[in-house]
Amino acid sequence: MGMQDNTLLYDVCDLSFVYELGRQKVHALRNVSLQVKRGDFVCLAGPSGSGKTTLLSVLGLIEPLQQGTVRFEGRSLSEMTETDRNRLRRFHIGFVFQQFHLIPVLSAEENVEYFLTRQGVPKAERRKRVDEALETVGISSQRKQRPLEMSGGQRQRVALARALAKRPNVIIADEPTASLDQATGKEIMRIFAEQTRERGVSVIAASHDPMVFAFAARQIELRDGEVVSC
Ligand SMILES: Nc1ncnc2c1ncn2[C@@H]1O[C@H](COP(=O)(O)OP(=O)(O)O)[C@@H](O)[C@H]1O
Ligand SMILES: [Mg+2]
Asked: Domain 39-66+81-229: which CATH class?
């Protein structure tokens, strides 16, 4: 493998983030600096309220950059246009959440295909990607079922397939196993790990769960919005 492996996917320097609630200010992130390489598997740890979700939201371009710098593959987010940032979020970042966020009226395969359709991916290519993603997460035989007809583990597989169908550079996962039992959670983490090894996808997962830490290559611990260990 070539130089690509040393490319920094994220280079974050002195990132701070404040929520304003009327006159009150919540300092959710304070001078956070970290780097994530291609194929890296990082776990964000720390108690509830320590800033994990906020950090993932800024890295996923869901929340705006307020203070500090974030480079994605060498490009500073603050120097990109809004169109560039939207494209980055839509095409290069896969999201997985604790509560799956599937569309209830769509089948498993339709949930995976939906975002690709919205992105304007042509039909034949969509088919190929949907088949491949469902296969990767081991849920091809349930492809016609709707979320409510599936177990939590199956739903999270569908959500993961949806993220993978984008062919993302990075998967951002917020408490991906918190709604699952340990055995099912492990299955999900195994798929994450496989993606980092075999595809060079980076994974950044927030979790309280020591089982998740065991799969990650490294752990970054947050406390009150600050990185306390790396
Ligand atoms: N939308 C919001 N508005 C105001 N405060 C928020 C909001 N989201 C999170 N916070 C606050 O920001 C801090 C960090 O929260 P969060 O990033 O959700 O941490 P974690 O994911 O580690 O539980 C907490 O004090 C939380 O109450
Ligand atoms: Mg959170």
From this structure: alpha beta
Q: Is the CB of 49 under 6 A from ligand 1?
A: yes
* Per-residue pLDDT at 7: 79
pTM of structure: 0.94
Q: How many CA atoms lie within 13 A of 209 on its CB side?
A: 21
**Domain boundaries along the sequence of the chain:** 39-66+81-229
Would you say the CB of residue 29 lies under 6 angstroms from ligand 1? no
Q: Report how far apart, in Å, the C-alpha atoms of 58 and of each of 15, 24, 79, 88, 117 are.
A: 9, 21, 15, 13, 25
Q: How far apart are CA 78 and CA 118, in angstroms?
A: 26
Residue 51 alpha carbon to ligand 2 centre in Å: 7
Structure confidence at residue 1 (pLDDT): 42
Q: Whose CA is nearest to atom 18 of ligand 1?
A: 53
d(C-alpha 95, C-alpha 171), whole Å: 6
Phi, psi of 173 (to 5 degrees): -125, 120
- Closest ligand 1 atom to Cα of 174: 21
In 156-214 the beta strands, taken as DSSP E runs, fall at 170-174, 202-206
Query: For each successive 10 residues of the chain (230 residues), what is the average pLDDT?
Result: 64 97 95 96 96 98 97 95 95 94 96 93 96 96 96 96 96 96 94 95 95 94 93
86 lines ligand 1 (CB under 6 A): no
